[in-house]
Amino acid sequence: MVRITSPVVRGLLYLSYTASLSLLIAVDARADDPVASFNVPAESLPQALMDFYHQSGVQPGFAATEQMVKSKSHPVSGTMASSIALDLMLKGTGYTYRFDADNSVDIIPADEPHAGPIPAATVATQPVAGPREPMPDQYGGRLEQVNVTGSLIRGVQDTVAPLLYLKQQQLAMADYATVQDALYTQPIISLNGPREDLGIDANYQYGAGLDLRGLGVGATLVLVNGQRQPLSGLNGDFVDVSTIPLSAVQRIEVLPDGASALYGSDAIAGVVNIIMRNDFDGAQSQLRYGTAVGGRRALVASQLLGTHWSGGHAMLAYEYSDETPLAAAERPYDANADKTPYGGGNYDTYYAYPGNILNPVTGLPIYGLHAAQGGQAPMLAALSPSINLENQFAGLQIFPEVTANELYATAAQDLSDRLQVFLEGRFAERQALQSDLPDYTVLQVPPSNPYYVNPYSGVPYTLVAYGFGHDYGPTMFSGDSQVYMTTLGTRLQIGQTWQATLSESYGRQSLRSNEYDIADPQILTTYLNDPNPATAFNPFGPTNPQTLAAIERDFPLSSVSTVEYTNLVADGSVFSLPAGDA
Fold first, then answer.
1. Which stretches of the chain drop beneath a pLDDT of 50?
2. Which residues touch 466 (CB under 8 Å, ≥6 apart)?
3. What is the pLDDT, as a whole number, of residue 553?
4. DSSP letter at 243?
5. Rg for the chain, CA atoms, rounded
6. H helix intervals, 57-98
7. Which of 166, 312, 435, 485 is spaced 20 to 30 Å from 343 by Cα?
8. What pLDDT does 487 receive?
């Protein structure tokens, strides 16, 4: 199989494919003024709005009240701009529309005010029908063509699957503090991916990845403004969306179907495109504080600054977040591994202090043993079938402690009527600290150990299941990550329909992780073989603190992921047919 990686070649091939389809369908898909062929009879207004959506691709938002159901739409027939069709359809119904996001409108009573025009987005393409001429003044704007996830060609009305949208208004009204929280509410997003409370996929920074349909983070492509991002985790497995400031997000688009033909093999499950705000004017401050009884507390503060000038605009967004840990001890069910009070089993661990002697054949605990008084070596008579058990969840934290600083900036300047340069970039620094299960191991205790005892004759060593919770407490994990991504580009309008965009992007993600309060296996073996009772490691009782300090060590890890690419996309009308432009 040959994989085409060049965005230019993919775009040209896709353009040829679209041109072929244009010979078979009678839809005007002109990039400069996309229109549609309408045939909406006079019918119940909710049904008419659904017919309008299917024929235009523009999403109307409405509440099907009893009054709306009784209202009849005005019939609309013919090829025209979608905004004109909607104007005619709502004539005499008592309803009008208000601009919501780039590709949708809200249907409202006629006495409510309208919003202004919608700026076009700046990522890959799917048009929303809109007129070339401005709307009448009472509508305060017009439906404009926008570029969304699922195609690289302006003017293509259909993608392989309907897009799911999370819009700025929805994000602002809901109780979402982060991008990942907003996305986790969608049923198509699986919760089996990397999360702050789930360190799978080498998620040593306790970030948040996205997993569509449960196919894995490696099969879900995450874009920001249509651009690929540097990968996170120790192995570079996922894009950490927790480093994206929610206050700077314009909308989130989810393509819930395979898009490998356009984006590559990492889009088997679909695409999530997080589109940032880029045309904000003024200042906006936000402060969010949340807490749970006996639980986690979260503080999020953000500041947006934006301005416009002749032929240009700029915006800067900063967000700070501070989240406290959530201990398992704060939740009765999670506080103890013994679930018998809830009708379950006892899952306390036999990797305990003192340790338990294992059967050398089955590897299962067979004897518990405690040190004799006075620090003497344990006697065979002290063996007991009663196994030592420990609650390994005693010091566990369900959520880590996290602090983050996130910055996003964008600017654009028109150099002429046809040429524009733009710049966008983001930076985030995130620190996480979590206590986990205590370290544990199977000790192979030799006869040279002064505390050696062996109930099995003919076996030259004793196997002991030992937990270091008493010695070191829970294992601690820390993760410090930094990510930055920047894009510099230019857009050129060529003729009436052609447009070319050239951009250069570079991003880098670094991770420094550390695991401590654990035992070094090699040093531990040395002290197990030590014949001196004052310094040897004792599997069945207290060990010299200096010996424990010598055995304990840290395990630091680090990784770096980078992405760099040049993107050139040019599209426009090739030739005209009676049904429209190809």
1. 1-34, 114-146, 157, 373-375, 379-381
2. 351, 352, 353, 355, 440, 441, 442, 443, 539
3. 93
4. G
5. 31
6. 66-70, 82-89
7. 435
8. 97
Read off φ and ψ for residue 14, nearest 5 degrees: -65, -35
CA dist., res. 259 & res. 254, Å (int): 11
Please name the residue that has the structure tokens 């996001």. 101
CATH class of the 28-143 domain in this structure: alpha beta
Which residues of the chain form CATH 3.55.50.30? 28-143
Residues contacting residue 373 through CB under 8 Å, at least 6 positions apart: none
Counted residue by residue, the chain has a size of 582
Helix H or strand E encompassing 522: helix 521-528
Q: Contact 480/434 with Cβ under 8 angstroms? A: no
Please, what's the largest Cα pairwise distance for the chain? 101
Q: What is the DSSP letter of 228?
A: E
- Reported as a single tens digit per residue, the pLDDT across 522-554 is 999 999 999 999 999 999 889 999 999 999 999
- Whole-number pLDDT of residue 156: 56
Check: CB of residue 497 under 8 Å from CB of residue 573: yes
Specify whether the backbone of 357 is left (phi greater than 0), alpha (psi in -120 to 50) or beta: beta
**In this structure, what DSSP letter does residue 384 have?**
B
**Token pair 């899952």: residue:** 347
Please tell me the predicted confidence (pLDDT) of residue 293. 81
Q: Which of these, 422, 406, 418, 407, lies nearest to 121 by C-alpha position?
A: 422
Residue 561, strand partner residues: 509
Six-digit token pair at 443? 């000790």
Upstream peptide bond of 400 is cis (omega within 30 degrees of 0): no
**How far is it, in rounded angstroms, from Cα 182 to Cα 199?**
20
The CA distance from 213 to 190, in Å, is 6
Separation between Cα atoms, residue 273 and residue 189, nearest integer Å: 13
pLDDT in the model for residue 58: 79
Q: Which of the 8 DSSP states describes residue 31?
A: S
Q: Dihedral (C-alpha) 446, 451, 455, 461: value to the nearest 10 degrees? A: -10
End-to-end CA distance of the chain: 29
What pLDDT shows up at residue 200?
A: 74
Q: Which of 247, 196, 573 is nearest to 403 (CA)?
A: 196
212-248 tens-digit pLDDT? 999 989 999 999 998 999 999 988 989 999 999 999 9
Place of tokens 């770096």: 560
pLDDT at site 100: 63
Q: Where are the alpha helices (DSSP H) in 110-196?
A: 168-173, 179-184
- Closest CA relative to residue 302, chosen from 281, 288, 313, 289: 288
Q: Which residues of 455-488 are buried (b: 16+ CB within 10 A; e: fewer)?
A: ebeeeebbbbbbbbbebbebbbbbbbbbbbbbbe
The strand pair at 270-276 and 220-224 is best described as parallel
Which phi and psi (to 5°) does residue 15 adopt?
Answer: -65, -40
Region label for 81, one of left (φ > 0), alpha (ψ between -120 and 50) or beta (otherwise)? beta
18-38: pLDDT as tens digits: 333 333 333 333 333 347 888
